[in-house]
Input
Amino acid sequence: MAYLLFKYASISVAVLVGLYAGLLGLLTTPAFQAHVVYLHKIQMTWFKDLDVPESFGFLRSQTTPFAIKSSASETLYAWHILPIELYRQHELALVAEPSGFAVDITSRLAFKLLRDDPDARLIIHLHGAGGTVGSGYRVPNYRALSAGQPNKIHVLTFDYGGFGRSRGTPSERGLCQDAIAVVDWATEVAGIPPSRILIFSQSLGTAVSLAVSEHFALQSPPKVFAGTILVAPFVDVAMLVATYRIAGSIPLLSPLARFPLLFKYLGTFIQDKWLSKDRIAQYIRTNEANEEKYQLTLIHAEDDYDIPSHHTEVLFWHAVNATEPRGVTYDEFKEVKQNSKRDLGAAGSVVEWRTENGIIREEILKTGLHDVVMGDPVITMAVMRIFETADPSLN
Ligand SMILES: *[C@@H]1O[C@H](CO)[C@@H](O)[C@H](O)[C@H]1NC(C)=O
Output
């Protein structure tokens, strides 16, 4: 009996170890990695038509689906979302228009309300892994983004190549090129200067957002946006897999993180590294050297079980470190933080780092999970703080 039990126990252990090794083997292949990192085939809006934004809770013709050309993915599927007070002012004319996909968006009233208002603000939205522009907490997120100035703040959101209706296969290069194409559309077709644009991003989108912010800051002359918001960002893919737990409980690769050499070896198989910690530093250094005004806000909930909030603390340190010619060690920095931290009780805490050129702000919330936070008032406040600081005449 004992022998049999032992036999079955060892068979199950062998099977589990075999499955785990098989999974690791699969993870070293680029195609499987792409599916794990981007989850682009998990749409979550299967039974709804993205061309009918009304079915996601929008008013008739409040949201215009259209396409943006990208060198990486041919065409990207995008939504332009009107803020509610602006919609109210033009309700009759909007309702009289055709709704649904716009082959020529420049012929639509909603687009003209964006292009022709010299005070309009635009938020370019970079969503996280999986899903489409319409899934999960993204729709409440769009409302929170424009709630502070609902006759001024428009939202532009899109699916990266390989996601939803955008063709192609996702990759680090491809996603960056897609986001650059969307910014180019906003500045060239809609005519909105970077000073009236804010880049909002969550989760995987934060890595794209840093790449894009860095790209434009490095142009000559530099293009720096009113601000960049990162919700639930991560340091890089290697640290992400080291800390990631499936459904918050089953560690994927973290057991291996105890064997640094093996982990480092597996790390060499990572195709898309998304080195956000380097990009955030490069972005800040470039702006400081060019004396460009910049604002960067990092927001993370302590109860985020997909990506632990420690990632934000590390990124914040890398950002602040880049403002100091001689740098700051993590321990020095922790002490400075402790002294300047504003404790908001059950709402969490805020630390702000100001230089002559920029404001870097870290908000650690007590609650908000990984994506529920996107529809919360902290998001509205973060947007308003950035737009008002960039141009105090906004109100
Ligand atoms: C911090 O900044 C210093 C000075 O620029 C740099 O030498 C150092 O590598 C930075 N530290 C990290 C962890 O990036």
